[in-house]
Design a protein that fits this description.
Elements lengths: L11 E4 L4 H4 L5 E4 L3 E3 L2 E5 L5 E3 L1 E6 L10 E7 L6 E3 L2 E5 L4 E6 L3 E3 L2 E6 L3 E3 L8 E3 L2 E6 L34 E5 L5 E3 L2 E3 L4 E5 L27 E3 L2 E3 L3 E5 L2 E2 L5 E2 L10 E4 L2 E3 L3 E5 L10 E4 L2 E3 L3 E5 L4 E3 L2 E3 L22 E6 L5 E3 L2 E3 L6 E6 L9 E4 L2 E3 L6 E2 L17 H4 L2 E6 L6 E7 L11 E2 L2 E2 L1 E4 L3 E7 L10 E6 L6 E5 L7 E6 L5 E6 L7 E7 L6 E6 L9 E3 L2 E2 L3 H6 L4 E4 L5 E6 L10 E6 L18 H6 L11 E2 L10 E4 L1 E6 L4 E5 L6 E4 L4 E2 L5 E8 L6 E6 L9 E3 L11 E6 L10 E8 L7 E9 L12 H6 L11 E2 L9 E4 L1 E6 L4 E5 L6 E4 L4 E2 L5 E8 ...
């Protein structure tokens, strides 16, 4: 990897005047065919011949003017044969470097071109064929400053149809290009592109010639996208936004069209490219999915990229080398950080439409903390089963995979994280060379995809290894309010809990889901609206002939004339299960069950399916999956989660809308747009009632109500369940009492451990309010546990319960930094802050201490007698701790030093802050925290965890494969796998169940001697799951053990 060096000066010089770069008016050389007429002069012009060698072109090109380029072969057609431009230099150009326009069979070789605006070497109309473009260097290709400065729209990007302006560069539209190859039927070998503000090498596929070639009879019948590839090999492309693009077509006015691929049925091979120091190594646009893979990338060497490759097609990449980090400090900063997990800057593949194929590739350095095999992006068609095989790794072992947490709910819309087009990531590991087991799938950890048999290697975050194969499934059902219906989809299998998914029409695309094939799992589709065309099209793809999916569509079997096209009707569920071709069955409840197969004769990317149709409409029941009294369609449109009753509640913020609640025993009731105002009558206590529920008590472990009142009392909650109606056995008081006229307060009802609530189905609620004739109570809102932090420690009740913590006391306060979330800690005075998967890594920006802070707390200081943080650093100091409370914010009066001083580079230490006797801590409500770390420019500090130190985090076990109340039986409960390694030693892995919050250390010893044990792997679990912990040993034999540390140090 060396800088490009070229000789710009020549003995023969063609140049613009001294002001050419200021005025934009440089010179140009145009070579035209015979018979050409000049503008305003009808006289015949003799044909030009261009044999240019050894010349210097400087200060050339007229800015923003079509056709005025340093060197321009213009519409020569076949007359271009034998003409050449070689061994020349072109530098400081206002408008491109070399243009071949409507010309065939020229030679452009050994030229060095530096600093030009717009495309560098350009094939202009797509009519250019049979040219030899070899061993050229294009350096510093600049993007035009504006659309007005661009000669053609493709110089600057895709035009926004609303504003008329050019969009900024993106991974798919990184324009301009140093080499703009608008017809593949040319020899383009051994060229160098360096320092383009857009792309280095770009091969595109217009459907017809454009510009003036479109109407020229010599070219008008051509189909550039159907031309074969002459040759594209030996490209070196570095220090660009994108190294190589194989993508796109052109409008007649040269506007760029994204995602068009080759239509040449014979396919093409692009080979021996070297791509490094690019934001994106190479991108491929959509191809013709009715054919097998049409593009092969072979023999590539790529390094130091944010993403080595991104493909919207079924291309093949083989026999290639990808290096995560050469150590030469060549990586550029990603311009698409939203596609990368925190702390990740170097990835092999950015998951996109696909499905790509990759085989016999060697990856180097993808075990480092800032690397990931995969990054991820949304896609128009998120195909499943991109395939990996024959991969080798240096060092050996599974590469890191670190993805963002796409289970987090965000805004709705095509790019929302809840959209399956984002999280349906499925890569098929054919031989186990990536994940360690053949014929498995690498998937994102979405509940709809995960099953109990999945295994996660410890260096994977938000990704897991599944034994299942997934079909790319599409469901088309247009409805009156959108092109596609809302629906709730449920994965089901006997003996397992249902897994639900809500698909929203707001995504604006056909329903695309990854469904498990060839399994006893089946999928239930409950549509929320009736399709306008009285049909539902259900199809599968990206799987092998004979693979099948089983599904049911509720209620449509009751519609008059309902039937299924492209499927055979059978008379029983047993017959459906035994079917070997598309079949359907209508059961007595009105469900239509279908079993859809991928047909023989179709390749993996073609789809097969069936269509449910009916003659006239019936009715669909309201679907309320979480039983909270609001239908799934309305919840989805309200940005609530229709599958999770944790966001159950009523806000009473619309005048006249009680949201299903009614007041009883009240003199008056008013919904004023901000509260539910209830006035008591003379006969007793008024109460609010909500009927029509079917919520699971286990999913709502607390309720909260915000209110104010003219009366005093302790609010009481009653409920009804399957065991009976309201009763004192099904009732509980709020945790605090209310004093009359004391303003708005929040009453909490802690239902954790209540056996008449947990494990029951709650069908009605009643809140008893303040009595007394005409006593008024204003209820602001009623909410479930997802929005309540009972102990004020910064973690919602449900999250604490899921981790086995006590949601009513901050005694188990703690932040572990084990995932890809900073858990709402923020930083200042830092050069960078990132997560490694086990730590929060903070890099100091200067000599001043970097500060990490956590706001949004409301915990009782008396419940947390001290705070401890586990950390290591390249700097040394006494760590200082600040806090805020009801008396004020962060200040020296609310600060304390750690009990010990940290010595630089002394490894992990626990820094403790004794707070129990501090008057600004004990008895106070703590609202924010800050830890001041080690200063010194670029000094790094790793924060492992921050915890309350006077109690232990509730801990109920280490997972069934490790601990048992009576015995430890690793032989039957854990799985060991040992394989020999080339050159000696073994590759060892241990698979076992883990529990969230527990730290696991894999220890090894050659002989069991007490002082010979050493740590070989370590991680802290951030969820209950099954993990794979690998280790490569150079010894002929070794002993292993697993050590566990529970939260709080147990």
């Amino acid at each position: 990897m060396r800088a490009e060096v070229g000789l710009l000066s020549r003995n023969v010089t063609l140049q613009g005047d001294a002001n050419a770069m200021t005025s934009g008016f440089g010179g140009h050389l145009m070579i035209m065919k015979s018979g050409t007429t000049l503008a305003g002069n009808p006289a015949f012009v003799m044909g030009g011949r261009g044999y240019v060698e050894g010349a210097e072109f400087r200060r050339m090109g007229r800015k923003s003017v079509l056709g005025k380029y340093p060197l321009h072969f213009h519409m020569l057609g076949e007359e271009g044969k034998g003409q050449y431009f070689r061994n020349n230099s072109v530098h400081r150009s206002n408008n491109r470097a070399i243009v071949i326009h409507g010309t065939e069979s020229t030679q452009v070789s050994n030229n060095f071109c530096y600093d030009h605006i717009g495309h560098g070497l350009m094939l202009e109309d797509g009519s250019e064929r049979f040219n030899r473009i070899t061993r050229n260097v294009m350096a510093l290709t600049r993007r035009p400053a504006s659309l007005a400065e661009a000669v053609t729209p493709s110089d600057i990007g895709v035009i926004n149809q609303t504003t008329g302006a050019a969009n900024g560069p993106s991974l798919q539209t990184a324009l301009p290009a140093s080499y703009w190859i608008a017809n593949p039927n040319n020899i383009v070998d051994d060229n160098v592109a360096a320092g383009s503000e857009g792309t280095g090498m770009w091969l595109l596929f217009p459907r017809t010639p454009v510009g003036i070639s479109k109407t020229d009879p010599r070219f008008s019948a051509q189909v550039p996208s159907a031309e074969p590839l002459g040759s594209l090999k030996g490209t070196v492309s570095h220090s660009n936004f994108c190294g190589l693009q194989v993508n796109g077509a052109l409008e007649d006015n040269h506007a760029f069209i994204t995602n068009r691929g080759t239509q040449f049925a014979g396919g093409m091979v692009i080979q021996d490219a070297t791509l490094y120091a690019n934001n994106l190594g190479h991108y491929g646009g959509l191809t013709d999915f009715t054919n097998p893979s049409l593009i092969t990338f072979r023999g590539f060497a790529m390094a130091d990229s944010n993403y080595a490759l991104m493909q919207a097609n079924n291309s093949l990449m083989e026999d290639s080398l990808v290096v995560a980090n050469t150590g030469l400090n060549l990586l550029i900063t990603s311009v698409n950080p939203e596609t990368l997990a925190p702390g990740i800057s170097r990835t092999y593949e950015l998951s996109y439409d696909g499905p790509t194929r990759a085989r016999n590739n060697h990856l180097v350095g993808f075990n480092a903390g800032d690397t990931s095999l995969l990054a991820n992006s949304g896609a128009s068609f998120k195909h499943t089963n991109a395939t990996y095989e024959g991969f080798t790794m240096s060092p050996p072992g599974a590469p890191c995979i670190k993805l963002q947490d796409y289970n987090a709910r965000s805004q709705k819309g095509p790019s929302g994280l809840t959209n399956p087009r984002v999280w349906s990531i499925v890569f098929r590991d054919l031989d186990g060379s990536v994940g360690g087991k053949a014929n498995t799938s690498i998937i994102f950890t979405h509940p709809f995809m995960q099953t109990s048999t999945d295994i996660r290697p410890v260096n994977w975050i938000n990704a897991t290894r599944s034994d299942h194969k997934f079909a790319y499934t599409t469901i088309n059902a247009p409805v009156p309010y959108g092109d596609y219906a809302d629906m709730t989809v449920t994965r089901q299998r006997a003996g397992e809990p249902d897994v639900n998914l809500h698909y929203s029409y707001i995504y604006g695309v056909q329903v695309e889901l990854p469904l498990i094939v060839n399994s006893s799992y089946y999928y239930t589709f409950r549509l929320h609206s009736i399709p306008t065309n009285r049909s539902i099209n259900f199809r599968i793809a990206n799987v092998a002939p004979g693979d099948f999916v089983k599904a049911q569509f509720t209620s449509f079997g009751n519609f008059p004339g309902s039937r299924v096209n492209s499927a055979t009707s059978v008379s029983s569920m047993a017959a459906l299960d035994n079917a070997t071709t598309n079949a359907y069955f209508k059961d007595s409840s009105g469900s239509i069950w279908v079993k859809v197969f991928q047909n023989a004769g179709l390749h993996a990317h073609q789809s097969n399916g069936c269509t449910i149709v009916w003659n006239s409409n019936g009715t669909l029941p309201v679907v309320d999956t979480d039983g909270d009294g609001m239908g799934d369609l309305n919840e989805g449109n309200s940005l609530r989660d229709p599958l999770d009753v944790g966001d159950f509640g009523a806000d009473f913020n619309i005048a006249g809308n009680a949201e299903g609640w009614t007041a009883s025993n009240a003199a008056t009731q008013t919904l004023n747009g901000s509260d539910f105002l209830v006035s008591a009558n003379a006969t007793g206590t008024p109460f609010l009632i909500r009927n029509g529920l079917a919520l699971k008590g286990s999913d709502v472990r607390s309720l909260a109500i915000r209110y104010r009142s003219e009366g005093s009392r302790t609010l009481r909650l009653y409920w009804a369940n399957q065991d009976g109606p309201y009763a004192e056995s099904r009732a509980i008081n709020a945790t605090t009492s209310y004093v009359a006229n004391s303003g708005y307060k929040i009453a909490i009802f802690n239902l954790t451990g209540n056996t008449d609530w947990v494990g029951k189905t709650i069908n009605s609620l009643r809140f008893d309010l303040m009595g007394g004739t005409n006593t008024q109570t204003w209820v602001d809102w009623i909410r479930g546990s997802d929005t309540v932090d009972l102990d004020g420690d910064g973690m919602l009740t449900r999250a604490e319960l899921d981790l086995g913590r006590d949601p009513t006391s901050a005694v188990d306060f703690g932040f572990e930094f084990n995932g890809i979330s900073q858990e709402d800690w923020t930083s200042t005075n830092t050069a960078s802050t990132s997560l490694t998967g086990t730590d929060l890594l903070v890099r100091a920006a200067s000599a001043s201490s970097p500060l990490i802070s956590r706001a949004g707390l409301s915990m009782k200081g008396s419940e947390v007698g001290n705070i401890t943080c586990r950390m290591q650093s390249e700097g040394g100091r006494t760590v200082r701790f600040y806090w805020g409370n009801e008396n004020g914010g962060l200040s020296e009066s609310r600060a304390i030093n750690a009990t010990t001083t940290y010595v630089a580079n002394s490894g992990y230490k626990e820094m403790t802050f004794n707070l129990a006797s501090h008057p600004e801590w004990a008895g106070r409500t703590i609202t924010e925290l800050r830890i001041d770390l080690m200063g010194g420019t670029n000094n790094r500090s790793w924060l492992d965890w921050v915890r309350g130190g006077d109690g232990t985090i509730s801990f109920t076990g280490a997972g069934p494969c490790i601990l048992d109340p009576d015995t430890v039986d690793l032989a039957s409960k854990a799985v060991f796998d040992v394989a020999p390694r080339a050159g000696g030693g073994s590759a060892t892995s241990m698979t076992f169940d883990v529990q969230a919050g527990v730290r696991y250390r894999m220890m090894a010893s050659p002989d069991l001697a007490p002082d010979s044990w050493h740590q070989i792997n370590e991680f802290t679990a951030d969820r209950d799951e099954r993990v794979l912990m690998p280790y490569n040993s150079d010894l002929p034999a070794e002993f292993y053990r697993i050590e566990l540390t529970a939260p709080g140090g147990q």
